[in-house]
């Protein structure tokens, strides 16, 4: 339970965490992968997430292995499917897509993945995953075949997160999807923060330090950034300062 304990400890001390999302398809550029991880470690990013809603390449395990070799941070899988598992990781977000009504993503894939997670011996973090509309249809929205929570309906997000917590989920991840036009709104984060006590992870469309600051102030405990660091690997320094400051 090492990574979950890190999230719980950070939440109770008010420390905010930054997670860098590595897309295994982008990681085929080994120089860029090395630069991203080197910068993530230098900037003191807290976690490295690896995964994607839809992968075009077949290098998932090799990517996780490389990320683990290159970094001294916990490596957490953020799987888009049960095939995205690797014993080189420290933990996996065991995601239930509670914003949707697709039974495969609420429990089906979990049944397939459970024995493999057990045999790999990696920590599973029960996570309520909530897709939120971020101004465009992202791959996550399309592939999941679910409707996201409307951007301006914080009440729906608060009730959904509360249901997830009452069901025993240990973290709630609100995501507008990779490359979204808009992030989850501070109002929605604040409403969810009011309704639950478990750590809140927020991702999708976070591109600048100012936004990162406002999402943390609204109640996010962990921010996840992927696309912006693929476009500018130096941005991680300003972002880390915003999250940790
Ligand atoms: C997507 O939350 C992640 O699932 C990160 O999104 O790539 O837009 O930073 P970005």
What's the short version?
The protein has 245 residues and is an alpha/beta fold.
What features would you describe in this structure?
There is one protein chain. The chain has one domain (2-244): Alpha-Beta Barrel (TIM Barrel), CATH 3.20.20.390. Helix content is 44%, strand content 17%. It has helices spanning 2-13, 30-42, 60-70, 103-120, 139-144, 154-166, 186-195, 209-218, 227-231, 235-244; strands at residues 17-22, 47-50, 75-77, 91-97, 123-131, 171-175, 200-203, 222-225. An eight-stranded parallel β-barrel has the order 1-2-3-4-5-6-7-8, surrounded by eight helices. Bound molecules: SN-glycerol-1-phosphate. SN-glycerol-1-phosphate binds at residues 21, 175, 177-180, 203-206, 224-228.
Which helices and strands occur, and which strands form pairs?
Blueprint: H1 2-13, E1 17-22, H2 30-42, E2 47-50, H3 60-70, E3 75-77, E4 91-97, H4 103-120, E5 123-131, H5 139-144, H6 154-166, E6 171-175, H7 186-195, E7 200-203, H8 209-218, E8 222-225, H9 227-231, H10 235-244
Helix pairs in contact: 6-7, 7-8, 8-10
Bound molecules: SN-glycerol-1-phosphate.
Q: What distinguishing features does this structure have?
A:
alpha/beta, 10 helices, 245 residues, TIM Barrel, binds SN-glycerol-1-phosphate, eight-stranded parallel beta barrel
């Amino acid at each position: 339970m090492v990574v979950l304990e890190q999230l719980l400890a950070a939440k109770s001390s008010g420390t905010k965490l930054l997670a860098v999302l590595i897309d295994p398809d982008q990681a085929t550029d080994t120089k860029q992968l090395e630069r991203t991880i080197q910068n993530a470690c230098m900037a003191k990013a807290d976690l490295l997430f690896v995964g994607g809603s839809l992968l075009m390449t077949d290098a998932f395990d090799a990517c996780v292995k490389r990320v683990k070799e290159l970094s001294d941070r916990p490596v957490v899988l953020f799987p888009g499917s049960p095939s995205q598992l690797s014993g080189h990781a420290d933990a996996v977000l065991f995601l239930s897509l509670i914003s949707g009504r697709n039974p495969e993503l609420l429990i089906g894939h979990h049944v397939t993945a459970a024995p493999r997670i057990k045999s790999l011996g990696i920590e599973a973090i029960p996570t309520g995953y909530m897709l939120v509309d971020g101004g465009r249809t992202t791959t996550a929205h399309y592939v999941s075949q679910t409707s996201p929570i409307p951007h301006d309906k914080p009440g729906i997000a608060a009730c959904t997160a509360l249901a997830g917590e009452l069901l025993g989920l240990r973290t709630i991840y609100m995501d507008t999807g990779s490359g979204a036009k808009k992030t989850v709104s501070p109002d929605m984060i604040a409403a969810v923060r009011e309704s639950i006590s478990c750590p809140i992870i927020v991702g999708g469309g976070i591109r600048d330090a100012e936004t990162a600051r406002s999402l943390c102030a609204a109640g996010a405990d962990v921010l996840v950034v992927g696309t912006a660091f693929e476009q500018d690997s130096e941005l991680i320094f300003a972002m880390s300062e915003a999250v940790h400051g």
